[in-house]
Design goal:
- It is a single chain.
- By secondary structure, the protein is α+β, with helices and mostly antiparallel strands.
- The chain folds into five domains: about 80 residues, DNA Primase, Chain A (Alpha-Beta Complex); about 140 residues, DNA primase, catalytic core, N-terminal domain (DNA primase DNAg catalytic core, N-terminal domain, Alpha-Beta Complex), CATH 3.90.980; about 110 residues, Dna Topoisomerase Vi A Subunit, Chain: A, domain 2 (3-Layer(aba) Sandwich); about 60 residues; about 190 residues, DNAb Helicase, Chain A (Orthogonal Bundle), CATH 1.10.860.
- A five-stranded antiparallel sheet has the order 1-2-3-4-5, with helices on both faces.
- The longest helix has about 35 residues.
- The radius of gyration is 29 Å and the shape is globular.
- About 5% of the residues have low confidence.
- Bound molecules: zinc ion.
- The site of zinc ion has 8 residues, from loops.
């Protein structure tokens, strides 16, 4: 018996469903379109009718029929189930009914909690202590009312009792993230106690979570809980997918075609209080890919006004990468030293205004930084500058902008543009398998670090094995999983081998038995994350796209080539490690034990060197 979601998947064609939202064009064995989830000019959104999965090579999103409908309709899994079931002619059992309204129940709870906290801050004598605090921090009454700030009294159960009176169950209150479950059977208690409460809203204004700032009076006795506590991840709240203040800032962001992103919620409130309405907070992290995608709906320009410390610098670096992935223009705001935006706006509003008007493109900011750190007139300085800045240029998606920064770098270090351009590309080029290097061009731009050649080869290996599963037993005895580079490549390689041996090896007609969908389902059952499976889909589509005409024989020889290269890299890595150990032992005083170990290591080193030599003579 299939469960309802598998039943629906087996009856609906992913191409037909997606086509109702996105105009798909046939391209080889797949279908292509411009991605509905990120802004792009060339189509990189791919649907595979054979595998019944989709993947976007621009923004990295992907999945099955359900994940597409959830993403495009902004639905939960259960809601998507309900939407698709009638179309597939599948009747859902009754028990899925209440779950559909759970989201609405949680929103009701959170909105009730926000007004509960707000009333206490504004009207109740128990809120006086928090009222003193906001006065001290100069938060205006307008801001308190507009943003519905509140106070969670130092109580274990007042909110819980209030919500239960309104008809919500203890379980729902826990699911909303407002109560913590004491061990089984015991009573639950308030998550937020003695805290100034900032409601977090989705873009249309619904409260989906809270941040609670512990009042200074309670800081001393606080046991283990931080100064700031956030709602946990719930059905309605995911920290990385929401921008604090966007519900209030969205119109100003659109009007000014600029979003100013700060780290903290206080920074955001203060900015609004002083009339800077296009400010949102990323809430203590760098801008995430989801947050960048949301901003792209309102503007093309983002200015990062982060603290001027190491963490802020890192957040600028990471955040700007996400911005580039969506072709958002990214600006860096340099605040007067040592201040966060909150302080800066309050104490030195002209300094704040000046730093906004002198915000510069993030790339220029990084270029200045690297030029300040190295001497562009010395050969070693030039090399360091190129090494540090070139990878940043490589990550820019927009070609015009990419060329602009290549020119800038070329001028700064007095090295020809053409040379820099080649250096940028040869770092990624495949020598042995030219045909396979096509894969690199379709790589997703959000990958942060530039990937090593071994990692690219490993990815190709996994992709080829997915396409030609009967090569798994041929190759697996020769490639140990530690020779495969890249965490998800290694993981997938290992699982392909395990799955093959378990489910396929003992059957006669092997290719008819290795079903991609079965492997995917099996991984799911093994506790693999959605991210791992998404990576698998990406590889599977990649191989279909580039090698729909490749023969088993070609695949076989390609895999052999990759195997040799990975083996050689592995041998080199091992040789380096062994050489290091030998060096360490040689510096020690002689003893029987040392001499024996040294002997073993020297022999291993010679064996490794011999194998490298043999491999080289085979390939060249
Ligand atoms: Zn996309």
């Amino acid at each position: 018996m299939l469960n309802p979601s598998d039943e629906i998947k087996s009856r609906l064609d992913i191409v037909e469903v997606i086509r109702q939202y996105v105009p798909l064009k046939p391209a080889g064995v797949n279908f292509l379109a411009r991605c509905p989830f990120h802004n792009e000019k060339t189509a990189s959104f791919t649907v595979s009718p054979v595998k019944q999965v989709w993947h976007c090579f621009g923004c990295g999103r992907g999945g099955d029929l359900f994940s597409f409908v959830m993403e495009i309709e902004k639905l939960t899994f259960v809601e998507a189930l309900r939407l698709l079931a009638p179309r597939a002619g599948v009747v859902l059992k009754q028990e899925t009914g209440p779950a559909i309204s759970l989201r609405n129940r949680l929103l009701d709870i959170l909105n009730s909690a926000a007004s509960f906290y707000h009333k206490i801050l504004v009207n109740d004598h128990s809120g006086q202590i928090a009222q003193n605090y906001v006065t001290e921090r100069n938060i205006s009454q307008d801001i308190i009312n507009d943003w519905q700030l509140g106070y969670a009294p130092d109580s274990w159960d007042d909110l819980i009792l209030f919500l239960k009176q309104k008809g919500f169950t203890g379980k729902e209150i826990i699911l909303a993230g407002l109560a913590i479950d004491r061990n089984e059977g015991g009573r639950s208690y308030n998550r937020f106690r003695g805290r100034l409460m900032f409601p977090i809203r989705e873009v249309n204004g619904n409260v989906i979570g809270f941040t609670g700032r512990l009042l200074p009076e309670f800081e001393k006795r606080d046991l283990g809980q931080g100064k700031y506590v956030n709602s946990p991840q719930t059905l309605v709240y995911d920290k990385g997918k929401v921008l604090f203040g966007l519900d209030k800032a969205k119109l100003a962001i659109r009007e000014e075609n600029l979003a100013i992103v700060v780290e903290g919620q206080m920074d955001c409130l203060t900015a609004h209080q002083f009339g800077f309405k296009n400010v949102v907070a990323s809430s203590g992290t760098a801008l995430t890919i989801e947050q960048a995608a949301i901003l792209k709906r309102y503007t093309n320009r983002v200015a990062f006004a982060f603290d001027m410390d190491a963490a802020g610098r890192l957040a600028l670096e990471r955040g700007s990468e996400q911005a580039f992935a969506f072709e958002l223009e990214a600006l860096a705001v340099s605040l007067p030293s040592g201040k966060d935006p909150d302080e800066c706006i309050r104490l030195d509003i002209n300094g704040w205004k000046n730093s906004l008007s002198s915000a510069e493109p993030v790339m220029q900011y990084f270029l200045k930084e690297v030029l300040a750190a190295h001497d562009e007139n010395s050969a070693s300085g030039r090399r360091a500058i190129v090494q540090k800045f070139l990878p940043r240029i490589a990550r820019i998606v927009n070609i015009v902008e990419k060329n602009f920064w290549l020119k800038k770098l070329s001028q700064a270090v007095d090295v020809g543009e053409q040379f820099l351009y080649e250096a940028m590309n040869t770092a990624k080029k495949s020598k042995v398998l030219d045909k396979i290097s096509v894969i690199e061009k379709t790589q997703t731009p959000i990958k942060t670090a530039p990937r090593s050649r071994d990692e690219i080869l490993s990815e190709q290996l996994v992709a080829l094995l997915i396409a030609f599963p009967d090569l798994i037993p041929v190759i697996s005895p020769y490639v140990a999983s530690e020779q495969v580079v890249g965490q998800s490549n290694q993981l997938l390689y290992r699982q392909l081998v395990v799955y093959y041996n378990k489910s396929v090896a003992h059957v006669q007609d092997k290719n008819s038995v290795f079903e991609y969908g079965d492997f995917r389902t099996w991984l799911n059952g093994q506790g693999f994350t959605a991210g791992d499976i998404q990576e698998l889909d990406r590889l599977a589509i990649l191989i279909e796209k580039n090698f729909s005409d490749i023969t088993a024989e070609e695949a076989n020889s390609a895999i052999k080539g990759i195997q040799t290269e990975l083996r050689r890299s592995y041998l080199n890595r091992r040789m380096k490690a062994v050489a290091k150990l030998i060096g360490e032992l040689e510096s020690q005083n002689s003893s029987t034990e040392r001499d024996e170990r040294l002997d073993v290591l020297l022999r291993e080193f010679n064996d490794l060197a011999e194998e490298v030599r043999q491999l080289s003579s085979v390939v060249e």
